Structures are given as structure tokens and as C-alpha cells.
Amino acid sequence: MGKSHSKVPLPRFRRGSRDEYIHECINKRKYYASYIFPSDNDEVDRLTVQHYIFQHIWESNFSSPVKDLLKSGAKVLDVGCGPGVWVLEMADKYRESTFTGIDIVANFPQTIKPENTNFFTGEVKRLPFEDNTFDFVYMRFMMFAITMDDWPEAIDELVRVCKPDGWIEIMERDILWYNETEIVRNWRTRIVDKLREEKGIELIITPHIPRFLYTNDKLTNIKCDEREAKISWGMEK
């Protein structure tokens, strides 16, 4: 049986290519100005493994109460989609819905992909979509890509492209490790301080996100949830 899918309006792209985002190459790995990690196959592998780790922790690909909406047919946006693993899995499970992924680099599928998926390049602060386009807007693991000052603006963009009765879900990890050794604590502190001072990136962002959400007057029914992720034990030396 064939299935029909509603189309997402074409995005409003500015002239230029994704090469305008290139910052520099270090040890033959390409880095972009707005993201501290490289853009290559190794990074795609890391993001894919990360997806399955957090899928296991949460026992799902989302937490919002949108399952019935997805089954009936919804327009969904994944902001910062990376290689598109989340989009592809969701598109396969909810075939009546249309899934769109966007990222600053095209590490996602560009030719061979499900018919109910779309992928575009773009930035979270300037999403190239019309107002009120999506029923469900999903964003995760953007703490390394969004500065502390830019978080409210990024959330405003998620709200803008989401329908008034739609849902927005933001997932972030907490870099504060519990029962950490002094060696790990000192290492973490140096990284957090360096990124905060040099890039304006706040890695301890999870305590701030609820405040950003509650101070946005267009958002209602805000809920926060957390899970504990167990990692390997470190050792003192």
C-alpha cells in the first residue's frame, strides 16, 4: 500500500554554502566555527553511539506525550540532527508523519532516505522555516553549539516554528559527575572554565534551561525530567 505525506514548506535559504561555516582544519579534521567537535566519519560514529546510549537510558526516542499525534500524522523537526539517526528511526516507526532534520553540516543522508524525511543545513538561531510549521520540535545535545547568551534566542526560534498547540522537547546531559575523583573533578573544571571563558559555552547548562523555558511567555505546560546515567569508575593516581 502506498502512503501519502504532507510536505514541509521549503526553507528560506540565504545565498552561500555550508563552506561558509568552516573554521579550520586541525590534523586533517574539519572544524566549524560554531561547534567545537570535528565534522568527519569518526564524529558521525560518536554521535550514533551517543544516540543509542541515551535511547537505552530513556527507553524511548522522546518523552513528550506525542505518540498519538505521531501515529495520526505530524510534522516533526529535529534541530541539530547530526547524522540523522533519530530522524531515520522515527520516520521508520511513524510512517504517517513527516520528519525534518537540520544541522550546520550535511552529515545526514542526502539521497537514499525514507520518503517521509527531509534534511537541510542551517543554524538553530536562524531556522529557515515559516512560523507555526511543526507539531513537534525536538532538540538535544546542543550544549557545545549554543553559547550561554544565545540559549534564549535559540529557544525563541524553536517556539517560532512550532505550532501554538505543538510540543517542544529539549534534552541535555549534565556534565557534573557524582562520586567523581579529584583527578576527574580538576579535569572537568578546567574544561568547563576554558569553554566558558573562550567560547561563551556553559557546559553546566541543565540548571539554566528550565529558567529559559519558564521565562518564555509563549510556553505552557512545562515539565522537566531527569535520569541517572552510570559511567565507568575512575581511579586515583
Question: Strand pairing plus helix content: what structural class?
Answer: alpha/beta
Helical run tally: 6
Low-pLDDT residue spans: 1-6, 9-20
| CATH homologous superfamily heading | Vaccinia Virus protein VP39
Radius of gyration: 18 Å
Question: How far apart lie the N and C ends?
Answer: 63 Å
Principal-axes geometry comes out as globular
Number of strands: 8
CATH class: Alpha Beta
Largest sheet: 5 strands, parallel
In total, the number of domains comes to 1
**Strand arrangement in the largest pleated sheet:** 6-5-4-7-8
Give structural notes.
The chain has 237 residues and is an alpha/beta fold. It has one domain: Rossmann fold. Helix content is 29%, strand content 19%. It has six helices and eight strands; from the N terminus they run βββααβαβββαβαα. The chain has helices at 41-58, 67-72, 85-93, 151-161, 182-199, 209-214, and strands spanning 22-26, 29-32, 35-38, 75-79, 98-103, 117-121, 134-140, 162-171. The protein has a five-stranded parallel beta sheet. It is globular, with a radius of gyration of 18 Å. Residues 1-6 and 9-20 have low confidence and may be disordered. Pfam families: Methyltransf_25 (PF13649). It comes from Rhizophagus irregularis. InterPro entries: Methyltransf_25 (IPR041698), SAM-dependent_MTases_sf (IPR029063).
